[in-house]
Write a structure and sequence with these properties.
mainly alpha, rod-shaped, 0% strand, 134 residues
């Protein structure tokens, strides 16, 4: 025969009573508590874009300045200053856009200039060969 110790027997009896009677009923109104936990606001710091512009398209040092603002934005985010981080991130984004646009224009301009210079040099060398009788 199974022997159940008295505390366990009292617990079983109490559970049986709760099951038979149902949940306790009271006349007091049910109140709820809402705890709002602010989610961590994601502030993009554009550090990878700034690094890319610093290495490849550093026109007028805009990429380097954008990188500095990106680092400042990341520092502000780590401290918990979301407003400061957003401000620095916005400046970094603006500088990155200008660095990218200026870098693309300078790259295209350099290619066009090289094409015209080589074309002119080629035509001049053809003229010189024609004048010499080749």
């Amino acid at each position: 025969m199974d022997h159940i110790d008295p505390p366990a027997q009292a617990m079983i009896k109490e559970e049986h009573e709760v099951a038979m009677l149902g949940a306790p009923q009271s006349q007091a109104p049910v109140t709820t508590t809402v705890i709002s936990i602010p989610s961590e606001t994601s502030v993009p710091d554009h550090i990878v874009w700034s690094l890319f512009n610093t290495i490849f398209m550093n026109s007028c040092c805009l990429g380097f300045v954008a990188f500095a603002y990106s680092v400042k934005s990341r520092d502000r985010k780590m401290v918990g200053d979301i407003t400061g981080a957003q401000s620095y991130a916005s400046t970094a984004k603006c500088l990155n856009i200008w660095a990218l646009v200026l870098g693309i224009f300078l790259t295209i301009g350099s290619i066009v200039l090289l094409v015209f210079v080589y074309r002119g040099a080629y035509q001049m060398s053809l003229e010189m060969m024609k004048n010499r009788g080749y």
